[in-house]
Each structure stands twice: as C-alpha cells, then as structure tokens.
Amino acid sequence: MEPTTPRKFMRIADMLLSKGYSVGQQLGEGTYSKVRTAENLADGRMCAVKIVDRHKARKDYLQKFMPRELAIIAKLNHSNIVKCCAIIENSDYIFQVMDYAEKGDVMGVIQEEGRLPEDVCKRIFQDTLSGMKYLHDMNIAHRDLKCENILIFHNNRAAISDFGFSCFYNNSLDKCQTFCGSKAYASPEVLQGIPYDPKLSDVWSLGIVLFTMLCGTQPFGDGNVTTMVQKQLWRTYTFPMTTSGTISSKVRQLVHVILEPCVNMRPTVATILVSDWLKK
Fold it and tell me: Which structural domain range is residue 41 located in?
C-alpha cells in the first residue's frame, strides 16, 4: 500500500479518537490494510487496529471478502484466536480493533532469534492447532495461515490472526477454487489450480509453519510455481544440517505426515493433535 499521508493520518486519528481510541505507530501492512497500535482511552489497554482504506481496496475484496471476514470474526471467541474488540466503519475506512500481541508474530521472532527450540515450537504449534480445530469445528477455513499470521502475547500464548481470506466451509461437494494465501504456504492442489478442500489446505500450511519454526527456513521456497509443485509432490525437502541431533525423530515424522501431497491421505487437525509428538 502507499504511505499514509499526514492528512490521511489525521483523518484516521480523529475518527478513532471519536470512538475512544488513540492511534499509535504502524505495526505492519497487508495487501489492502495497515495495522497500527491504539490505546483504549477508557481503560488504558493497548490494542491493535487494522485499517482498510475503501478507496484503495479492490471492489471484489470490499464486496466479497471483507463482508465475509467481518461476519466470521464476529463469531469467534477462543484463547488461540486473536479477539476482535470492535468494528468501526465510515465511508472511507473500516477499522478492526483487536487484542495487541506484545511479542509480535512468529516470523518476526524467527527473523530475530533464528530457528526456534523444539519445545518452543511445540508450545506454539499446540496453540495454533487448538485455534485451528476451533475454526474447523465451526466450519470455517482460514486459507492464509502462515508464520506472519500467528501472534505471540506477553504470556507466550499463540493466537491465529487475519481472516481476510477465510470462508465458511461445511465439507460439501463444492470445493473452493479461489487462490488464497502465500505461495510458500500454499498446498500443491491450490498451486495447481485444482478445486480444493480448504480445511485440508489449512493442514498443509500448518506443516509449512512447523517446518519453518524448526528450521528457520521454508521447505519449498516461494519461487517458480511449477518447480515448487514438483518439489511438493515428490517431497524433495530436507532438514538443514544445523538441525541434526537437535530436533527429535517424532517431530520430523510429523512434518512428513502433514506435508502429504495426496489430499485423501493428509491428516485432519484433530488427528495431528493426538500425534506422538504432541502427547504429554
């Protein structure tokens, strides 16, 4: 997105102030949105606010994806899902006021600290699975799960965020066809343009998230799509030599099970939750 001009920033600040929020620094940005810190003036609590500029976003996003996102986040209430505290709209902007994750997102942690210890990966992954199972049980698919969309709070709780590409899906015969998410996290069926089950596509993304946390790199990269699909179908990924002797055989096996190119053989979130690696 283009930088926010001082005039636009003042309009945003005035709008949020009228609703009881003082806007602060920018935390990040997406294709059609920017995220800033905000303070709830009623209780002093820090929040994050996602700001969508109606004049910059594509029409199909505003007419299809945004209404669906707002309908979905209004239904969500789980400790491993980032909570939306308020939705504020006017003719120019849509604001989503959310819980503020003090430690940022998982990718930021990896970039700052390198690959994560296995016990830290297990804690984050367990929380992420818990949130994803909640979504899938409600017949909601995320469709954009990645390390950048898993946030870490001050108490090390992990929570899933950003439901811009999410959809309702009840395992009907009608598959999804819209390409969603980031290439590096997308399943082979999505990259091939094949109608897909979005819940099982979410599972593939979970495997990429786990590998990335363990290794500090992604198994298939995000380059040429044809090459990526070939690597996915043939499972031509390797754990870096730096992980030798530092991560268990159980988690290596779990990654292998999750990154199953055959959709009919790919596990569900519920199955992953009872895997050997995650058993207490």
Answer: 6-99
C-alpha 172, offset from chain centre: 24
Q: Has residue 1 been placed in a domain?
A: no
Has residue 1 got a pLDDT over 80?
A: no
Rounded percentage of the chain residues whose pLDDT exceeds 90: 89
Residues 157 and 63 placed together within one structural domain of the fold:
no
Residue 160's contacts (CB-CB under 8 Å, 6 or more residues apart) are 80, 81, 82, 128, 131, 132, 135, 142, 145, 149, 150, 151
In a domain, 70, yes or no: yes
Mean pLDDT of 147-162: 97
Q: For residue 44, is pLDDT > 80?
A: yes
101 vs 259: CA distance, rounded Å = 29
Are the C-beta atoms of residues 137 and 235 closer than 8 Å to each other?
Answer: no
244 with 115, same domain?
yes
Would you give the distance in Å from CA 199 to the centre of its chain? 14
CATH assignment at residue 55: 3.30.200.20
Residue 2 has pLDDT above 90, yes or no: no
**CA 170, CA 197: separation in Å to the nearest integer?**
10
Residue ending a domain, choose from 99, 121, 136: 99
The domain boundary, picked from 74, 99, 124, lies at 99
Nearest residue to 203 (alpha-carbon basis) of 221, 185, 178: 185
Q: What is the mean pLDDT of residues 39-68?
A: 94
Confidence band of 65 (pLDDT split at 50, 70, 90): very high
Active site residues: 144
* Number of domain units in the chain: 2
